[in-house]
Every structure is written in C-alpha cells, then in structure tokens.
Amino acid sequence: MAKKxxxxxxxxxxxxxxxxxxxxxxxxxxxxGAGIAFAVFFVFFLLDYFSMTMTKxxxxxxxxxxxxxxxxxxxxxxxxxxxxxxxxxxxxYARKINVLAGIQSPENIKGEPGVGGGEKSDLNVDxxxxxxxxxxxxQAIKQRAESVEKNLSYMYHFFENQTATLATMxxxxxxxxxxxxxxxxxxxxxxxxxxxxTGLDIATNFNNPVVATANGVVIQVGFDKYKGNxxxxxxxxxxxxxxxxxxxxxxxxxxxxxxGQLVGYVGNTGKTLGPHLHYEVHLNGKPINPIDYIIxx
Length: 297
Fold this sequence. Notes:
This protein has 297 residues and is an alpha+beta fold. The chain folds into 3 domains: 5-59; 74-167; 178-293, Glucose Permease (Domain IIA) (Distorted Sandwich), CATH 2.70.70. 36% of the residues lie in helices and 26% in strands. The chain is built from 3 helices and 14 strands. The strands form 3 sheets. Strands 3, 6, 7, 8, 9, 10, 11, 12, 13 and 14 form a 10-stranded antiparallel β-sheet that branches. A two-stranded antiparallel ribbon has the order 1-2. A hairpin with a 2-residue loop joins strand 13 (276-283) and strand 14 (286-288). The longest helix has 77 residues, at 25-101. The N and C termini lie far apart (112 Å). 22% of the residues are buried.
C-alpha cells in the first residue's frame, strides 16, 4: 500500500517560483493527536489550578473561622469560670448569713445553704480544669444562682425587722492585717506543745487602729501579764468580744460603743512575739471561731 502524504505549497509574493513541503500523513496525525492531548492536559491543569486556589482560599477562611470560634470558646470558658467564682462567693455569704440567722450552726458552715439548688457535685469545681460549656453545665450554674438568690431573698426579709439583733453580732474585722494564727488547735509558739488557740491572731502594723466589731458596752479594760492592754465588750444576745496586746485603749468600762468605733491601737504588750491583735469572740461564755461571723472580705 502506497504511503500517503500531505503537501504544503509555499508561494512567496515576491517570486514566481514556489516551494513544496511534503509531510507524511502519519506524521500529521501524530502531530494533531499530540496537540489534542496537550490541549486536554492543559485544560485539566487549569481546572486543577483553579480548584487548588479555591481550596486554599476556603482553607484560609476555615482557619480564620476556627480561630474565631476558639477565641469565642475561650471567652465562654473565662466567663463561666468567673460566674462560678462569683456564685461560690455569694454561697459563702449565704452560709454565713444563715449562721447569723440561726438557721445553720457554725459547725456546718462549710455545708450548703438552707435551700435546695444545683447538684452538690457541681459545687466542688476545679477551676483550673477546662470548664464544661455544655447546656447542662450552664443549667447547673443557673440553678446555683437561683438557689443563692432565693436564700438571700429569704435572709433579707428575715433581717428586715432584726436590725437590733444583727447590730450585736461581730460581723467585721477588728483591724486591717492578715491572720497569722487561726482559731483552733496549734503548736504553742512559747512552749512548743499542742494547745488550743481561742481566737485569731491578726498580724499588722504597730499602732494600727482597732475597732469594735459590733454594738455593745465595754465591760472591762486593763492590763494583764498575758493579755497585755486589753478591752472586753459585751454585745448582748450572748455575744462578747476581747481585744488583746493593745498599745493603748481609748475606751473605758461602762462606755457604749458602736460597730466600727475605735477602741484602741495594735501593740506588743503582754505575752507576744511581735505586734499583732489577738481577737476573741465568745457566745454564752464559750470561745467560738470569729471567722464564722465575719461577713466583710
């Protein structure tokens, strides 16, 4: 079978002669096939390029959206932590007010308020752990808030007509400082033996003012080799307070005092290792933990 050719005649416009180029038919078919294959490959390449470009753009958008959602969740977690801390603070106030109202005993002050509410398991939350932002967790916080609100509302109405009684309760700090030795068992700093500390030692600056923690009448002032300069106040309803180791006292026996009134200055008199205030609260003659009745922070 004779080979087939395709001839291309080139005729220049400035010459009368012409030139003929002969190309085998098979070669032409190969060139055309290669051209079609290249065109198809180029089209697929363009489609893939645009697809990759769009995918990258969508990926960037997703990264931005994920970052925004992560920040939003972090804000939610921070808010929930703050809500839990705030509610816990209100619960502590509610417990102390329950004690003041006589609804709850000081021995049970670490328990729950006198009304129902959120689950107990939710009350002991590890605030350092990652908070739960689920609807159930939000509902538990809401229940706790409603519980505290009901309790405080009840207490508010309870105390509306009890202002005179509340005024006799030692609910404020007697001086500004920090508790260096709490109420309860301890090692005596002088003997090194086990002893029971019947008050609070509040370490503070020399000559800091000491105030009465409730309304009352001064029943004794004086000096004792152990207490140093001291003041004792009777508040009524079985409550009395004592203030030891004063530099000096500025009240006298039989004098009426009000909550927050100056009674003396922090000193270093009596049996003491340094300037501080020893503060005691008695109920019916028995020492009790002053912290149970202090409301202010």
